[in-house]
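ugh finaly. both done.
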Amino acid sequence: MLINTKENPQISIIVSTYNSEAWLQKVLWGFNCQTFKDFEVVIADDGSGPKTKELIDSMAGQVCYPIKHVWHEDEGFQKSRILNKAILACQGDYIIMTDGDCIPREDFVEVHYINKELGYFISGGYYMLPMNISKMITKEDIEKQKCFNIQWLKDKGIPKTFKNNKLTTKGFISTLLNMFTPTNASWNGHNSSGWKKDILNVNGFDERMQYGGQDRELGERLFNFGIKSKQLRYSAVCVHLDHKRGYKTPESIEKNLAIRKETRNNKVVWTHYGISK
């Protein structure tokens, strides 16, 4: 369903969601605060009920960017399938992917935009919030960027840890931390971006995969295709709202690990279970 349009946006942002209207609304307010504004939002909806559509219809008249709602029937956790449909719906040449529980900082899209480069994808970071703070964040807190302010978070009970650097570092220091972090620059569903043509060239997500690593497997096929990655976990930042993970099962994890092992060992580039069947 097309809510409104923008001709040839420079960036398309895919936001995945499933029956989580309160969190999705906060995320959409976050994108309304962006310093870089030439983008569209494509919501990849894995079978939500009518309340999600009602929210999107309402928000479309309140935000400064166009929204597309890509939806399919609820058949359990089929995020890979709906993401592939959302990829095809993107009008931009460059795609940012994130989740409907990740509020983007005001420079989120700008950081992805200025760091995009042919032959690369970008791996961003997130700052996990506990449930009590996730619930208390208001539209005003997002507009005034309070939920990214470490002192505001400390006042609400966030402890002092090294991960707080994700919210406090800027410029050279964040670049330094990006360089020396031990975390791999993998494709992360909550915060990554790449060229649409590269994603299509590896046939998108493997739809055999349910919860657990389907985003990483896409990145591994991009690596096999010759695409490199940039680590921006201290520069491209979002705050991750807490939620239950009832769709995580040992069976899905085991199956996905086997597919990822095959992808790495056999240098697989193209999945036969992706966008093009």
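ok and the 2nd:
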Amino acid sequence: MGHTKTTVSAQWLKDNLDNPQVKIIDCRFLLSESDWGYQQYNHSHIENAYYFHLNQDFSSPIQPHGGRHPLPDNQVFADKLAQIGIIQNQTTVVIYDSSRFAFSARLWWLLRYLGHNQVFVLDGGWQQWQQLNYPVTNITPTLSQGYFSPQPQQDWLVNIDYVKQVLNSNSTVIIDARSGDRYRGEVEPIDPVAGSIPSAQNIFWQEMTTEEGKLKSVEELKAIWQPYQNYPEIIVYCGSGVTACVDILALNTINLCQCKLYSGGWSDWCSY
């Protein structure tokens, strides 16, 4: 197993701040206070970065089923990417948050799911950028027209019916990316029911990064995922398809690309 580049360093981004081929997206967010990230962005952000909001930009409205953060409408989302000047398969997109990839990985996954591979998350996130005293501003960059025609990779996504079909399959492993206490059903801070999908294994999304918000080394990631590397199919879920993408980013880094997202996650599963 080799590895795939999924992150860029703060140094690389600083060197490319004025590169017209690079677009930066800030997606800082707090589940408990949905306007917090945008307020932080307006106060200070990486120079030339645009802001994308988890609920408004890269999720669609909540329905009775489908989870707390349903994926956005492909065309609506693609139009938002084009509005900030992203040209499909040409522009390099760098995404950052302040939560150890919790939100940037979802956006990273979405761009790749819609057929754009030149996308990376900022290693160390906003905190690392600030520590290095790299350029920040409170000015929102101007919009410029790009072009983005969504080409969804449908086989990267599974729904509840599919998950039920493979629950006892020897060729599929289901990974719960939530914290151990939520996985075990000891606590449930958000959803109405506690617990996890039967037969699911637990690999907490925060294990993919260091406390400083940097992706762990390829060797460390391989060690974490070693028990599951030979499964033809790895399905990852979390509460609502957001932090599961951190696990998927790590899996892609070590070339375990047979991973799929159950985007509805526990919030969808327990709604039936």
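summary for the 2nd one i guess: The longest helix spans residues 74-83.
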